[in-house]
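From: lab user (bench 3)
To: helpdesk
Subject: output format question, protein + 5-O-phosphono-beta-D-ribofuranosylamine

Hello, I'm new to running complex predictions and I'm not sure whether the block I got back is the full result or only part of it. Here's what I submitted:
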Amino acid sequence: MPDKKIKLALFASGTGSNVARIVDYFRQSSRVECSLIVCNKQGAGVLQIAEKEGIDTVLLDKETFFRGDAYTGFLQEAGIDWIILAGFLWKIPPALIRAWPEHIINIHPALLPAYGGKGMYGRHVHEAVLQNGEKESGITIHLVDEQYDHGRTLFQARCPVEPGDTPETLAKRVQALEHTHFPRVIEELVS
Ligand code: GRF
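Helpdesk reply: Thanks, we reran it on our side. This is the complete output you should expect:
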């Protein structure tokens, strides 16, 4: 009997370019399976990716999500081993963190602990990096705890901030790092 596959739930709120990369990376894997895509936003691009890939989705209801452990049982019944936040914008409730201790990871488009915390997402991050005249930025992959962008860092990669960068050009460079590293770091961690 082969070992049971490790099941990932991919949480995302937006376009889902990281989700697309992760799904693609594990497509042929005999060890890891992308079982579920969890989204909090109707019409988000990531839902189209889920449909195209034939992956089950959950569209979260806000009140239910923040009411204690409402989705915990569902995710446990689905056999989810790891929760991967790939551009998921809601704070993870404590009950979910307790149910997957050290098994929830997030990717952040900057070098934490700098440029993290509430309100630091997407374009806001890159704007702040540019405003402060930073010479480099990058990505951080970290465990999730009860504070925004706070849990233990698992991996960082860096890129230069170039003269003349706009939030868009910097975002592109950072996103390239995410796409290169995130699936591989997930694999190393969960295997
Ligand atoms: C990424 O930059 C990630 O670091 C952040 O949200 C963005 C998601 O982008 N947490 P996408 O939806 O994967 O394209």
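A quick orientation on your result: DSSP finds seven helices and seven strands in the chain. Let us know if anything else is unclear.
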